[in-house]
Structure formats: structure tokens, C-alpha cells
Specification:
Layout: E1 2-8, E2 15-22, E3 27-31, H1 36-45, E4 52-54, H2 60-63, H3 66-73, E5 76-80, E6 92-94, E7 99-102, E8 105-111, E9 120-124, E10 129-133, E11 136-137, E12 140-141, H4 149-160, E13 167-170, H5 175-185, H6 190-204, E14 212-213, H7 214-220, H8 229-235
Parallel strand pairs: 3-4, 4-5, 5-6, 10-13
Antiparallel strand pairs: 1-2, 2-3, 7-8, 8-9, 9-10, 11-12, 13-14
Helix pairs in contact: 5-6
The chain binds zinc ion.
Length: 238
């Protein structure tokens, strides 16, 4: 599977949408279409007409271009069945335990409440790629807006249980923001400093900070590495 990150709402919300293509079939999808212009430009550059739009959750900065791109590309929109009322233009509802096939590339759906109720992760196990929306960012996690901290904890444990060599792709570029707490909480641990150096190198070149593998994230992200719900609460300042 080919994965192209697309920075959207640059300088304000710094969202990442992703263009993903199953190279065997040539079938493509956009994950979380945040802003039309940069996504259309990326599709034109690659001469791709995406067949699907895959949403992680309903927030406007992840679904704002659903309807425009659905109409432009004649794409079908896939999102959490339980959140169908809040996902603009949804065609296919899907839920945890189900598999979505992007051509020859299967994705598992992982339910991750906390940031919102109805948030899902898209896990392409064969390709070792995980799209984490607004649950997991580099060195930080999403705000707990609709769910409880217990739900966020449970969601993080699901991510922690995935293999170390999975690469993850977050919904925003928040690495430098996350680094402040990661450095403070870890007392400037050498692995966090190394993580951050690599991120800064990439960001300076105008690239996304990552992708990072879950092994690095389990080690360096102070919320993913919390050993208990109480520790997560302490680290989040509850
Ligand atoms: Zn969100």
C-alpha cells in the first residue's frame, strides 16, 4: 500500500489527510478529508481518482471535504456505523471486528472512544499501518471531549497491544507540542531526545515528523507509556 500524507489547514490546525493506494488493484482512498484543495492537488499529481473516503470520526476538520470530494470523485464514504448521523455523506457503516477491503488490502476497524464516542482506527495489519485520527498523535494524545478518561485509557491499551513494528499515522502534526510534556515527564530521557531530533529534521525539510513505529511511541509517548489509569490521570493533570 502506498501512503501519501497531505498537510491540510496548514498553520492553523495542521491536519493530516492521507491518500492511500492498494498497489495491486490501484484502488485508492482518502482518509479524513480535511481540506479539498491540497487533497485534489495530490490526487492530480498521482493521477488518482479515489474510490473511498474513510473517516476516523465526525469532527469537522476530518470530514469537512467529505461531500465535495464524494461528488468530485464519485467516492463512497465509510465511517463508524454508530456515528452515521454525524458523518456527512456516509454510505457504508462499519464497526469493530469488521474488515474493510481496499482492493487487496484489508483494514481492521478498532473502536476507540474517548476523544469522541464513535471514533475508530483504521488498522492495515498486512501493511503494518495504523491511522489513529485524533486518538494518538506523536508524543501526545487527543483531547477527551465526548468520552471518559476510562474510555481513553481502554483505547490506548488497544493500541499498545498492537505489534511494535506497526507504523502509525496521526490526524494532526502535533509533535513539537507533544514534545514539551514528553521531555518534562520523562526528565529529558535520551530516547525522547532522539525521537525529537528525528522529528525536527523532518519538519525542517517540510515533511511530516513521522511516521514512527509503535515501539518508539510506546516508549516515548508519556500517555501511551502510562502503566495505569491513575498514572494516565496524573500525567494529564487530572
Ligand atoms: Zn477530532
Amino acid at each position: 500500500m502506498k501512503i501519501t500524507p497531505i498537510l491540510c489547514r496548514a498553520g492553523t490546525m495542521d491536519n493530516y489527510s492521507y491518500l492511500i493506494t492498494d498497489e495491486q488493484s490501484g484502488i485508492s482512498a482518502i482518509i479524513d478529508p480535511s481540506e479539498s484543495a491540497p487533497i485534489i492537488e495530490t490526487c492530480r499529481q498521482q493521477n488518482i481518482q479515489p474510490e473511498y473516503i474513510l473517516n476516523t470520526h465526525h469532527h469537522f476538520d476530518h470530514t469537512d471535504s467529505n461531500l465535495e470530494l464524494k461528488s468530485l470523485f464519485h467516492a463512497r464514504i465509510v465511517g463508524h456505523a454508530a456515528d452515521a448521523a454525524r458523518i456527512p455523506g456516509i454510505d457504508i457503516g462499519i464497526k469493530e471486528g469488521e474488515t474493510f477491503n481496499l482492493g487487496e488490502t484489508p483494514a481492521q476497524i478498532i473502536s476507540t472512544n474517548g476523544h469522541t464516542i464513535g471514533h475508530i482506527l483504521w488498522y492495515f495489519a498486512k501493511d503494518k499501518a495504523l491511522f489513529t485520527g485524533d486518538v494518538l498523535f506523536n508524543l501526545c494524545i487527543g483531547g477527551i471531549f465526548e468520552g471518559t478518561i476510562e474510555q481513553m485509557w481502554a483505547s490506548l491499551q488497544k493500541i499498545k497491544a498492537l505489534p511494535d513494528n506497526v507504523m502509525f499515522y496521526p490526524g494532526h502534526e502535533y509533535t513539537l507540542y507533544g514534545a514539551r510534556d514528553a521531555l518534562r515527564i520523562s526528565n529529558n530521557a535520551p530516547e525522547v531526545i532522539k525521537y525529537l531530533e528525528l522529528a525536527q529534521n523532518n519538519l525542517k525539510k517540510g515533511l511530516p515528523a513521522g511516521p514512527y513505529c509503535l515501539k518508539d511511541e510506546k516508549q516515548c509517548n508519556p500517555y501511551l507509556s502510562a502503566q495505569s489509569l491513575v498514572e494516565l490521570e496524573q500525567r494529564l493533570g487530572y
